[in-house]
Amino acid sequence: MMWMVGGALVLLVARFLWLAYFHRVNAMSRQAELMNWLDIGRVSNADGGKDILLARNERGARIDWRTGEVWLMNPKVAEPFADFLAVERWLTLRDMPTADKPAAVAPAPAEPEPEAAPDAGPVRDTLPAFQQKVDACLAKAEGGQELLETKQAFEAGSEPYLEASTELSKTALELEVSPAMVATFHISAFAALAETAGADKLERVAASLHAAARQIRASVSA
Fold this sequence. Notes:
Elements: H1 2-22, H2 24-34, E1 38-44, E2 50-56, E3 59-63, E4 70-74, H3 84-99, H4 127-140, H5 144-157, H6 159-174, H7 179-192, H8 201-221
Antiparallel strand pairs: 1-2, 2-3, 3-4
Helix pairs in contact: 3-7, 4-5, 4-6, 4-7, 5-6, 6-8, 7-8
């Protein structure tokens, strides 16, 4: 009889630990930590329980204690996000028009000198140079060395991830999106690993980079 009671207690403890780790709210908390959001406290929910409050720089967010949905509080957004990956994409695309506007070009002289050569404009980066800038932005982020090594390991070990990373950099270079934005998309892709399982998890994460490239094109053409 005692071994049956002991076995029941072990099962109960195992179930409690499983729920504590894999519950969606806890998964969202781990994803937020990977993306440098800080847990700053709890706030009472109207339906009972305590929502989790997080902050990053001037941004504020809240994780619903019941559903694990993410509410962006600063800036205020009326609808919840499925996860912090969706939050990062929304913030990136929202800030892109102001962050990546080209500098104003001074008007040309009314009567230029005939022998003056035309202004060729700023020299564009080559793809390798642009990718090096993306790596430099990753290295400057919190936990930068680990982020950079993760990106390089994924590109070396996964052909789909390398293809997606190259496509994203080409798109950003073509449409004059900053390397910092591309680095943010990579960080978002790493965070998606926490919600991805199975042998094809890197392929699924690579798909998020393809989606980021499509979103950049859509936001510029809109």
